[in-house]
Amino acid sequence: MSPDLRIKTGVTLCLAGLTVALMGLLLTKRGELPLLVFVGGFVYLPGSFLAFLSARGPERNKVFLTLRFIRLAFFGVVAFTIFRIMNP
In the chain, helix, strand, coil percent, each to 5? Predict the structure, then answer.
């Protein structure tokens, strides 16, 4: 498998994890613990490792920037989840 394909696969896994987390946030009711947010985080982890460790040279900075934005979106999902749990 070429490094470019591994990077694309890793970023796709990261985005799939983020999508699962967002769907878990939307599908659960207020006051419930959305377990799909944790599942999305576990899907994100191997994808981020695959993408970051497959990149070489200046391309690593681009991949790291993409992963940083996905992590910021995860932070928003987790923060919104905490607010939903605290205010049922």
Answer: 85, 0, 15
